[in-house]
Amino acid sequence: MDMQIELKDVSANYQIGPIRKPNVLNSVNLTIESGTFTALIGRTGAGKSSLLKTLNGLLLPSEGSIRVGNTVIKSSNQKDAIRKIRKQVGMVFQFPESQLFAETVEKDICFGPLNFGVPLEEAKEKAKKVIDLVGLEPSILSKSPFSLSGGQKRRVAIAGILAMEPSVLVLDEPGAGLDPQGKKEIMSLISTWHQQEGLTTILVTHDMEDVALYADRVILMDQGKILKYEKTKKIFSDTDLLESWGLEIPQARHYQRRIEQETGIKLPNVCLTLEELADALVAVGLV
Amino acid sequence: MDVSFQLREGEWTALIGHNGSGKSTLANLLVGLLQLDEGKIKLNGSITKKEQSFEHIGIVFQNPENQFIGTTVEDDVAFGLENINMSYEEMRERVDKALLDVDMLDYRMADPSQLSGGQKQRVAIAGMLALEPKVLILDEAFVMLDPRSRKELMATIRKLTNKGMTILSITHDMEEAAHADKVMVMERGRIKTVDSPSQLFFSDSTLEKPFAEKLREALKSRKRKVPDKYMTEEEMVLWICKSN
Amino acid sequence: MNKLILGRYFPGESWLHQLDARAKMISVVLLIAMLFIANNWLAYLFLWLITLFIMHLSQVPFHTYVRGVKPMIWLILFTVMLQVLFTSGSNVYVEWGPITISEYGLINGVFIFSRFVMIVFLSTVLTLTTKPIDLTDGINKLLTPLRLVKVPVDDISIMLSISLRFIPNLLDETQKVMDAQRARGTEFGEGSLFQQMKTLVPIFLPLFASSLNRAEDMANMMDVKGYNSGIKRSTFRRVYWKKQDTWCLCGVFFIGVVTVLLRG
């Protein structure tokens, strides 16, 4: 399904009532192509979460418009458009396990689909499908979500979003608070869904290794504006800029920079992963 | 659990192990949060009673928000001192000193909503330091922090060890463990290995290695002449420069 | 949430802002008591002047106080109407079935209206000019004598201050959970009363669960730091009683005397 996302001159704030509040987004223009994997980076307070919220109508723009596929959202509250967009854009917040509430895992997963008018039997079928997608056993469907481990809870929460069969998957730091093993597993699953189900994926993260590994393109934000929107390799080529914005760079890139500085020899390409670095070092004969 | 280990003053020891290995159980036992079913705990050769635990050992947990009890930073640090009925003047001194040790003195009137995760963890540390423990346990204290907060916290820990504080940090993060002076590996309620990071990451193939070590192995598998020993980032960069 | 003025702190440097919380709390209680002692025009007029003067001292705009009364206006008017329409006494003006409008009823109606509104205004002055934490510190100090009768004053105090400390967090979390459930297709505030209440479950349960988690973490921390119910503990936060606080109480006492004297 073609689900291009377009933001046109979007500004937004959290103003309620007469007290003026500053804009969290300032004239944002952005086009995300269908089926891509985009990472959204920037320091805390840059506006990343706010940008995500405009994508499913949780934060309405004060100016400009947001288009997801054929649906458009503007500053006036159009219930139908918002409802449509919320089904198409599946949003996984940070620590999603904190939204679990139902008596059984199955009921919790069905919550989303039922809200969008999917008949109960169909919803249950979807639940079975997604529980497998998130790498859990079907027996977990009858358990109480509160009896699960942290990692399992998180997968159940994400399953609840996947069950709505969105075309776009938006994730805010899905690995937050997990141990390295758990994090790897979740990221690997996300990559699988992206490829297998063709989901347009948007990932907010501080982990540059994940950005290097999974993202096609990267959006860099600060103070409610988009500073850069480039292919992954290109964004990590100017490391000084990233550091000035207080951001990390992938380990491999960091080593590359140090080695280039100390030896004065430039490696043939921007290295984002361990393997690329090892190959590049061999290629220039430094090792 | 049958565990016996030594911590040296001013040393940073990392405790690693898979989920279920008993790391957190050990920490909770040491600070008296868990009761023993059988056996005893001995500190410096003498059996401890629960009330004595917190006099010697401080602990900082994972969640920065849920440890912050006071309305302001200094109130929070003073909490433990109020519990031992300390006089105001003495509390004032200890609170200020503890905040200075973690570089949070400027924030003493701040309320928690104004602080980052890393800052809150530092306040949690200060709250323990005020009680003047001999050992400080960090139970996965870095897990919920963003990269910048992690860096700041690590620098604070380093500073504390340089001043003589003994640190036991429980972690899954191998880069964090690589910074420690010593690493203990726990498995099924027992301590399997105690070693320096370099020795451990070199010899134990089941562990996730720090980046420099992974690079060394990647180069080795490409048949390059890398030294046959564990290397840190500094050592790796130095070696590459020296060979050219 | 935003309309709730009672309970909100309004930062400022007025004379009232600088008074000790204990003096203010005692004063408000005494002044409210006087509202029940007063029973004639003159007394009420006097108390109105006093109330308006106190509100002026707070340097908080008058319309903020009016906004504070608004949520309760229907309750107040209802009670007043009961007085006006169903009280008999001297000089009956209208008599129609169960309804009796008398001079006595009308006057009492005005008194009750005044009493209600002044209670709201005075309580609002207290909360507008006193930081919540200062209020709990004040309550803690005032409750001290109760220790002698084994009331767990420290526990109550800590419970109050922890609750206050986590209010912003709770509000935040509520917003987050609401957003998460909205993203799954719920809408709040729509449909029948029953439907609206159903939508509260996906908010309430997760908040409850996270609060339990938080409570456990907090209890562990408190345990490690040596907190125990009933132990003797010192206080780091200090409250200072100043001369102006004594003057304040004297003033209130004086007002009380006048009110009693004005009693018909």
TrEMBL record, chain C:
<feature type="transmembrane region" description="Helical">
    <location>
        <begin position="246"/>
        <end position="262"/>
    </location>
</feature>
<feature type="transmembrane region" description="Helical">
    <location>
        <begin position="73"/>
        <end position="94"/>
    </location>
</feature>
<dbReference type="GO" id="GO:0005886">
    <property type="term" value="C:plasma membrane"/>
</dbReference>
<keyword id="KW-0472">Membrane</keyword>
<dbReference type="InterPro" id="IPR003339">
    <property type="entry name" value="ABC/ECF_trnsptr_transmembrane"/>
</dbReference>
<dbReference type="Pfam" id="PF02361">
    <property type="entry name" value="CbiQ"/>
</dbReference>
<keyword id="KW-0812">Transmembrane</keyword>
<protein>
    <submittedName>
        <fullName>Energy-coupling factor transporter transmembrane protein EcfT</fullName>
    </submittedName>
</protein>
<keyword id="KW-1133">Transmembrane helix</keyword>
<feature type="transmembrane region" description="Helical">
    <location>
        <begin position="106"/>
        <end position="128"/>
    </location>
</feature>
